[in-house]
Each structure stands twice: as structure tokens, then as C-alpha cells.
Amino acid sequence: MTIALLGLPQDNNASYLSGPALAPQRIREALWSDSANMFTETGLDLGDPTIWTDSGNVALEGLTGQSAYDAIYSAVTQRIAQGHRLVSLGGDHSIAFPVIHAHANAYEGLNILHIDAHPDLYDNMLDNKFSHASPFARLMETGKIARLVQVGIRTQNAHQKAQAEKFGVETHEMRDLSKLADLQFEGPVYLSFDLDALDPAFAPGVSHFEPGGLSTRQGLDIIQNFKGQLVGADVVELNPLRDANGMTAMVAAKLAKELIARLVADQDASDR
Ligand code: MN
Ligand code: MN
Fold first, then answer.
1. Contact residues for 132 (Cβ-Cβ < 8 A; gap 6+)
2. Model-wide pTM > 0.85
3. pLDDT at residue 135 in the model
4. Which CATH architecture best describes the domain 3-271?
5. How far, in Å, is the centroid of ligand 2 from the Cα of 172?
6. Is the pLDDT of residue 164 over 90?
7. Smallest Cα–Cα separation from 185: which of 149, 220, 150?
8. CA gap 208, 263 in Å, rounded
9. Domain spans of the chain?
10. Ion ligand 2 neighbours, Cβ < 5 Å
11. 250, 30 in Cβ contact below 8 A?
């Protein structure tokens, strides 16, 4: 069983700016850049082609709403059925609804670890149920998610607070990160990483600047140290049109590398 990278170049569900559709290719370029080697911090050589494979981009050009949802859902379902564990590269955060829904149907009792400045729990944003502001509301409505744990939140309004309470979301706000060391899960975990969880100082290439965020190191710490079994992940909301010298693309590539390493480690542990 290999880890597969999957590009999801979609940004027509973003509420403010386009650009994230360009992200998968920029992240690949950063990943393969000669400026760094292919080892993860845990000592895994991602230059070894038996560890992971790049399964390309899902063709999303011209697709919106339900048709884009269906294309993503079926591409992800197919790769899971082939035995892959996926790191998906967005795209805006709307891709999380089809991607995680496919995982929830494949892994019973799926937990979500969602790292973001925003809760993305809007019932309805701009009359688009597929908006990047709503994927976690849609996922909770499926009834298939065991737990939704959100980290890095610093934009909760009254509506999103009510939605979090309605769905029983566990929120770790940025102003109170003291309990992060205790992040632990029973059963399979899907990790969704919105780059705007990071402080704009670390990740300026995003559409929504939200100061007061995580450092890159804190983001990596979460990936490497939460307790539970990772079965899938995404890195979303890179906006190359806002990036500075490709710096945020490099951050996204780094997160993807360490997510691959964590997927490999957790897969090896479950095979034993
Ligand atoms: Mn988000
Ligand atoms: Mn966000």
C-alpha cells in the first residue's frame, strides 16, 4: 500500500479571492525543488519511489457545485479502494467536503483534526452550500463523523459558535492552546490543514490574512505528535497569487512531507 498525492485545483467555491487552483502545481515544484533534500524530519527518504506516488490532478476545470463535488468524491473513493492513503493538495477548503466524506464512508468512526483560523461551519455562505466556509457543517450533517476537533481558531462569530455547539465540535482557540499536548483520538483520524491557521508571517500566500496564528513549528508539532492513527490528510488554501517568493508553497510542501511520513508510520504500526 502506497501513499498517494492528489491535486485538487479548485477555487470557485472561495468567497473572496481566486488563486488556490494554481496551488497543487506550485506545491509539487516546492517539494521537488533542488533547494532542499527529500528526507522528512523523521528520517524517511521521500526520494524512494516505493513510499509514495503522485496520482496527478483531478480534472476540475469548468466544474462547479455538485459536479465538482462528484468528481472529487469519486476520484478519492477510487484511490482509497485501490489501497492508497491520500495527501490531497487544494484548492480552496471546499474540497474537504467530498474528500472527507469519501474517507468517512471508507473508515467507520472517522475523526477529523481540523487546523484552521476559521471554523468553516457556516450553514450557508453566499447561497452556496459547497462554499469553502461550510465544509465542516456539511460533514457533521452526514452523521458519520465521530469527532471534529478544531485547532487554531480565532475568527468565531455568534453563528459559527452556535453551529459548533449544535454539532458538538471541540474547539481549541488560538488564545488558549494550552491543552494541545493532550490531542488524542480513538480510531481513524483525518487531518485537514488550512494554511491560514499559520500566522501570515509564516504563510503569507493565503487569501484570508488572520494575524495571531500558529508558527510553522507548532503546525508540524501537531502533525507529528497527536495520538491516534492518521488515514488521510489535505493541505489547502495556498494562494500562489498572494505568495512571497514561493515561501508559502515551501511551507505547504513541508507540511505535505511530514504528513506523508506520519501516514507511513501509522500504516506500519497498524500492519504489525
Ligand atoms: Mn478553511
Ligand atoms: Mn481558513
1. 13, 14, 15, 92, 93, 94, 120, 237
2. yes
3. 98
4. 3-Layer(aba) Sandwich (3.40)
5. 14
6. yes
7. 149
8. 29
9. 3-271
10. 116-118, 194, 196
11. yes
